[in-house]
Design goal:
40% of the residues lie in helices and 20% in strands. The protein is built from 12 helices and 15 strands. The N and C termini lie close together (8 Å).
Length: 389
């Protein structure tokens, strides 16, 4: 979906396909048919943006076979879909029964991460619509925090510097400006937007910036205005933003709140949980740990990294951090010029919701994704952006 900002520029809105498990190119093509095109039809749009997730095998197939890449581009056009952004965070196995810590491997100290991201950049340059010259990729925020020493930090900086050089060369070759954004996430080396400032300054490349995920920002209790002001002051570009909402528990000391939270403690994904105390941020790596004994203080609200559907707030006594998303979006798109032109709804946890909230059929999932995009569209038009055909 495209929108005209009052400054005349185009803002793109997509939804991320990492909600649909696929490891191969055939699986990606099936996604377009079975999920993406039905969402577009529900929205009554001639064209729908998707934030494509390509696992390593699919990316390698596309980058090694120009005819396969042309075929994917043709299939996107045929189904009324377009791609300006990729989710380059998960490397493989995101649809596995248990993902947890595996999603952070390989990290930016491992050569595979650089090669995979380079492949994604080359693929994206070939998928961009004819009238679009800039593409974006979100990526791992360096590494999970454990086992990350000075040696691995230096290897990660070197890899990202090399990536910047490769992106420069790619633009020289194709005329396409591909940019990559580190995506801060609780528990990682870059947990907050503030954590990104020093490593990005050390890399010092204009094509490498930050991806602001509004669920992650909210989970870490970052103030949106403070975070975005700091990025602007440091000259760090917001490459893209993922529109998502975290789980919020206002009164975690109450038994009924603990019971409601326990329904979201599931075995597939990691749900880092945080509380903002007078002594600073406290947290656990997963929601189950927070619910066990006295792992976290419970006199203040808890937030858990669980991407809840934007349009469907959890039942009381829980809520979501949708107000944080709205505040971030106002800053990103509501000013005299956009701070980013690429927005992506990223609720990948539909099948990890409590059983009674999960979509039971493919058409229900398409309905839910369409409802999320409708909410995002309405927020943008309320900010003065005009939806384009």
């Amino acid at each position: 979906m495209r929108f005209r900002h009052p400054d005349g520029s185009t803002v793109h809105l997509a939804y991320c396909t990492n909600v649909h498990p696929a490891e191969t190119l055939d699986g990606v093509l099936a996604q377009l048919r079975d999920h993406c095109e039905p969402v577009r039809r529900r929205l009554g749009r001639d064209r729908l943006g998707i934030g494509l997730w390509l696992a390593k095998d699919a990316a390698r197939a596309l980058v090694s076979d120009p005819s396969a890449l042309r075929g994917l581009r043709t299939e996107l056009d045929r189904r009324g879909l377009e791609v300006v952004t990729l989710n380059g965070f998960p490397y493989e196995g995101f649809g596995a029964e248990q993902v947890k810590y595996r999603v952070y491997k390989p990290d930016w100290a491992d050569p595979e991460r650089l090669e995979h991201t380079t492949a994604l950049a080359r693929v994206l340059a070939g998928l961009l619509p004819d009238d679009v010259t800039r593409g974006t990729i979100s990526t791992l925020p360096l590494a999970w925090r454990t086992a990350y020493d000075d040696r691995r930090a230096e290897a990660a900086r070197t890899a990202l510097a090399t990536l910047g050089e490769r992106l420069d060369a790619l633009q020289e070759l194709t005329g396409r400006d591909i940019r990559v954004g580190l995506e801060p996430e609780p528990g990682c080396v870059v947990e907050t937007t503030g954590d990104a400032l020093v490593p990005l300054a050390a890399i010092g490349h204009p094509r490498i910036g930050i991806c602001v995920d509004t669920c992650h920002l909210a989970t870490s209790f970052e103030d949106p205005h403070t975070a975005l002001d700091a990025l602007t002051a440091a000259g760090v570009p917001v490459v893209k933003s993922q529109l998502s909402a975290a789980l919020h528990a206002e009164h975690p000391h109450l038994p009924e709140v603990r019971e409601a939270l326990a329904a979201f403690d599931e075995p597939r994904f990691l749900h880092q949980t945080r509380v903002d105390t007078a002594a600073g941020l406290r947290g656990t790596d997963d929601l189950g740990e927070a619910l066990t004994g006295d792992a976290l203080p419970d006199a203040a609200p808890w937030r858990a990294h669980f991407h809840v559907p934007l349009h469907a707030e959890p039942a009381a006594p829980l809520t979501s951090t949708l107000p944080v998303l709205k505040s971030v979006l106002t800053r990103l798109a509501g000013g005299p010029r956009p701070l980013t032109h690429h927005l992506e709804v990223e609720t990948y946890t539909w099948q990890a919701l409590p059983p009674e909230l999960r979509p039971r059929a493919r058409n229900q999932l398409a309905d839910g994704i369409a409802a999320e995009l409708t909410l995002a569209r309405d927020l943008l038009t309320d900010l003065g952006l005009k939806e384009l055909p």
